[in-house]
Amino acid sequence: MPLYEHVYLARQDLSAQQVEEMTTSFKGVIEGLGGKLVGDPEYWGVKTLSFRIRKNRKAHFTLFKLDAPPAALTEVERQQRLSEDVLRYLTVRVDEHEEGPSAMMRKADRDRERDERGGGRFDRGDRFDRGDRDRGPRRERREDEPAAAAEE
């Protein structure tokens, strides 16, 4: 059977529990038509969209790695088109599935590790301490000129 990666976006106002129930129902359709999921579905969380989709600025993202016949995939896509809770879906045929978590899950793990060790977005631990460096010659202010003119 061919291998696929399938991602769907659910509305932002759904709870994580409701998205999990939708995932379970789509998984049941795939397995009922002779397909199987490779690993567990990956819930990527709520992400900000690049543009509004049906008045939604954010969406729940979920990834399936599938080993299924085309008929099973067609049925899942049909059900997602009919569902008002699914904003978009995308299916890509692949030659083989990546081992381990997807790139989105690796990014989430990397971000979590960075936050745990205390490094923020602007933390540059790789730079040396500059200390008090000389910013060039400054001229002395004369008594008759204002303070702002001497700093120029």
Features:
alpha+beta; Alpha-Beta Plaits; 4 helices; elongated
Helix content: 25-40%
Roughly how many Å apart are the termini?
73 Å
CATH superfamily of the domain at 3-97: Ribosomal protein S6/Translation elongation factor EF1B
Shape: elongated
Order of helices and strands: EHEEEHEHH
Strand content: 25-35%
**How many extended strands?**
5
The average pLDDT value, as a whole number, equals: 82
Tally of helical segments: 4
CATH fold group of the domain at 3-97: Alpha-Beta Plaits
**Low-confidence spans:** none
CATH class of the domain at 3-97: Alpha Beta
Just name the CATH architecture of the domain at 3-97. 2-Layer Sandwich
Structural class: alpha+beta
> How is the main sheet built?
5 strands, antiparallel
Q: What's the Cα radius of gyration?
A: 26 Å
